[in-house]
Task: inverse folding
């Protein structure tokens, strides 16, 4: 995934890699896709870092059973992409089952070692 240019098709492909890694709890792929200085606001309103996100998967706190993403918008601005997605997710968090619909915004940026998520936010929607 090194030296991939920011194009709509490449960002969509990276989004698919991200979804697959989330569903499978693939920490190695998540580690590669998320920037070390990532900041993300989760639906609870908490701000998490890459370490917190990876630890959530590593410790088995979050298990995604199904996810159904639908890309709404994708804008390329120089070396950065802004993506909005509506996603239905079924899973378990800290042992409790959940099923919800969320809207996410994610920011992907081109670096020498590839395209990485640098930030984003998610909110629950009806």
Result:
């Amino acid at each position: 995934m090194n030296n991939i240019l920011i194009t709509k098709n490449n960002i969509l492909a990276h989004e698919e890699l991200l979804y697959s890694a989330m569903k499978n709890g693939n920490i190695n792929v998540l580690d590669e896709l998320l920037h070390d200085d990532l900041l993300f606001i989760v639906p609870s309103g908490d701000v998490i870092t890459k370490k917190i996100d990876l630890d959530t998967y590593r410790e088995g706190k979050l298990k995604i059973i199904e996810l159904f993403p639908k890309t709404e918008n994708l804008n390329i601005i120089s070396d950065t992409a802004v993506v909005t997605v509506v996603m239905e997710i079924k899973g378990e968090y800290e042992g409790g089952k959940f099923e919800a619909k969320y809207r996410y915004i994610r920011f992907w940026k081109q670096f020498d070692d590839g395209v990485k998520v640098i930030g984003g936010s998610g909110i629950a929607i009806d």
User: Anything to note?
Assistant: The radius of gyration is 14 Å. Residues 49 and 82 are 19 Å apart (CA to CA). The helical segments are 8-24, 27-33, 50-58. The longest helix spans residues 8-24.
